[in-house]
Amino acid sequence: MASNGHTENTASMKRNKSFTELLGDNLTFDVKAEVFLDGHVKSMDQYNQMHKQSVEDPESFWTKIANQFYWKEKWSGKFMEYNFDVRKGDIFIKFMEGGKTNICYNVLDRVAQETPDKIAFYWEGNDPANCKTYTYKQLLDEVCKFSNVLKSKGLKKGDRVALYMPMIIELVVAMLACARIGIIHSIVFAGFSADSLAERLKDGDCSLLITADYSVRGDKSIDLKTVADNALKECGEDGVDIKMCIVVKNSSAEGDGTHSPKQKKAKTSVSWNEDVDLWWHDLMTGASNDCQCEWMDAEDPLFILYTSGSTGKPKGVLHTTAGYMLYAATTFKYSFDYHEGEVYWCTADIGWITGHSYIVYGPMANAATSVMFEGTPLYPDAGRMWAVVEKYKVSKFYTAPTAIRMLMKFSDDFVKKYDRSSLKVLGTVGEPINPEAWLWYYKIVGEERCSIVDTFWQTETGGHVIGGMPGATMMKPGSASFPFFGAVPVIMDEDGKEKEGVEVDQGYLVFKQPWPGLMRTLYGNHSRYQAAYFERFPGYYCAGDGAYRDKDGYYWITGRIDDLMNVSGHLLSTAQVESAIVEHSSISEAAVVGYPHPVKGTGIYCFVTPKNGIRFCDALVSELKQKVRTRIGPIATPDVIHEAPGLPKTRSGKIMRRILRKIAAGQTDIGDTTTLADSTVVDKLFTNRPQQ
Ligand code: 6R9
């Protein structure tokens, strides 16, 4: 393993050890069989047989599924074509090329035609008194109207539109409207800073930004429009002129209970530029609800979504139409064992891939009824999640370990006072789950009745690539268990040799062949795509995570093996945080590492060297934290800033992050330091550790 990977994986192995300590020999859990009598997959034999077919004969496996969708024209050529090996030429992946379809038509029109009054979303506002329902037909009307708005503004197939919006229904309307007429949407999480938004707008060469005046979360109100204005200004300064900004008036509904009195005060005015800004509601008034779909080629781009890259510059992951549609739909159906009539809730934000695949496209492709939640798990109190579960009788629930860890700090009474008897499947995503969190989720939330599905996947993979089948897979807490249909994971050693046998120790997690939902390129940068994912091990897709396989064939993900930190389930690059810090005029050098954090999973620990003559003080610490928030966004706020008169470096000047990681984790045994140019810097770092 790479030196940094090695340390991380050792830490994860220790974490897994405590599963044994906590659970004794009882490492495997079954679910209550009667809960899953009608499961889509009833046994491991059935799963094994289906998985085998999906990887040995992908064409017949996926064609059966593709036939359940509407195709304007079926594909005539090969079902799947690809090259995973850089030595043989450029990497490419194609599924069903030449077929013509439209994802919006498939997930919305078809359901609205068959069951117009079926509820697509129970929208639950930040304020518990504020909720609305949207049927498939209502949503279709809104989507058609907004598609016409986009067309009337001159937007056409292939253009890029950025969405910087709160968790309001207009976000779903806007993304589906884009998909309907072939516009590539690029959603930017509304917690990112103006700089981050500008960077993404420029990279995608977007012609329009859609935002809202305000967003509300908990007792906070965020002035999104000002962030959007600043981002547009930055783009202009760099010669990228974005001429249009459509703004949803999210603060309009006086008296609907959306806003606390404090928030009401904040929302009275919004900055406005007559040349650029347009109100969503003005444009929608009088727009026709009749809009034909644009028939898209299976391999036409559907969306761009940015994810952190090791070098600091975010990567614009590009997904295409038909493969993504098939994969989001199929993973949703099987991983959550979704059945007609059930209510499903994913607590993610649509600004992340989890929201794209498992709030919008996957559930809607299954004609599901979902909860869409604007608020936060702690508002108005720590019982909110379970109040919502009771209110809508949620049966499939999907959240992240960081949320579980946050909630389990409060009394179990917050959970127990609500009726959770509707729950059947509890999903988790974003990072490896620790044993305490798994057990709390299983025992307290799920009353030892529900299946816990630990879903491993990435922005790049489009949908789940490892995860169990509820009711069929015996659960091992902490293991994502088995590959999803179409995925062939392999554990690789340092030299690019596949580790053989069922039980193998940790190595690099790679995949041997594509599945329909795997990204096709990085927007505008195919060479970076090849370099980041395919060059390290020619012939394989390299996920960037470490993993091992146990004697029963279960996969255990051990964490990132690159310079990405998984903070509360979100990937952030150490390089990006470092470059924000060194922009401060008092800092000469910075090195950032992750460290174990009780709620976030990984916290952000920054070693900073002030310039000569600069005094390290609390004010400087606050300024540095602010700097990172402004550059990247609040999710990247450093947890610890540690003054480093010098950084541990090799004689060739490379920072030894292995040592910094140990210091950040509070470990004193830092191993071999003989390669250090100056070993006294380490002693100094031990003596001035900040209080945490
Ligand atoms: C969906 C999503 C991807 C990275 C991935 C890995 C980590 C996600 C996980 C998990 C262990 C799980 N990750 N799910 N690690 N167990 N169940 O999170 O996408 O934001 O792109 O992050 O998250 O490190 O490589 P993304």
Automatic annotation (TrEMBL):
It holds the Pfam family AMP-binding_C. CDD domains: ACS. GO terms for biological process: acetyl-CoA biosynthetic process from acetate. Keywords: ATP-binding, Ligase, Membrane, Nucleotide-binding, Transmembrane, Transmembrane helix. It comes from the Eukaryota. Residues 109-521 form the AMP-dependent synthetase/ligase domain. Residues 47-107 form the Acetyl-coenzyme A synthetase N-terminal domain. InterPro entries: Ac_CoA_lig, ACAS_N, AMP-bd_C, AMP-bd_C_sf, AMP-binding_CS, AMP-dep_synth/lig_dom, ANL_N_sf. This is Acetyl-coenzyme A synthetase. It comes from Clytia hemisphaerica.
